[in-house]
Structures are given as structure tokens and as C-alpha cells.
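Researcher: We're teaching a course module on how sequence relates to structure. For the next exercise, students receive a sequence and then see the predicted structure as C-alpha cells, so they can try to spot secondary structure elements on their own. Here is the exercise chain.
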Amino acid sequence: MTISHEQADWFKQTFDQLTDNMEKAVLGKRHVVRLALTCLLSEGHILLEDFPGTGKTMLARALANTVQGSHARIQFTPDLLPSDVTGVTVYDQHKGTFEFHPGPIFHTIVLA
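Model: And here is the predicted structure for the students to work with:
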């Protein structure tokens, strides 16, 4: 598959606009923002390891908001159940039906 110069220029402009938008929320981490966007565009996963308070959650929120997606956080504690991740079906007595409450795994960006 080949792309034209116009398509490459459009992609560069769009990528730079996404990066600039995310940098409004995550200051001073342009390289990390670009890597996160690259990972998203390549349909991959990203592992961010850093000290507390360095903007990992803010990066996930900014990424989700930039692509007009949703975000959720999963806190991995010893008492975590599978339904805490995938969701749960609950019986509604007033309607007499079961209702599915989706878990955080159904969001666009999941911070674990």
C-alpha cells in the first residue's frame, strides 16, 4: 500500500494536532504523548510505569478525550472480582428483568 504526499502531510498535521491537544493537559511530556498516540494508532497496548503523581491518569484521560472516547480506571486490589472488570447483570424488581451494567473494560481507554 502506498500513500501520496498529500496523505502523509494530512497525517502529520492531524498527528501534531492530536499531540498539541493532549499537551494542554499533560505538560512537558511531548515524547510520552507521541508514544501513547503511536501506540493507539497501531492498535497496541502501552505500559506506563512511573512514580505516583507524574500524570499517568491525566495522560489516559487526555488521550480518551482527544479521540472522543471514554476512559475508566481499574484498581487492582486483592479483593478484585472478575465482575468488577467485565460488569454484572442485576435483576430489576420493578421491571422484572435483568439489566447488564458494563464494567470498565468496555471503555475506549482503560487505566489499570
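Model: If you want an answer key for the exercise: Helices lie at 5-23, 30-41, 56-66, 82-86. The radius of gyration is 18 Å.
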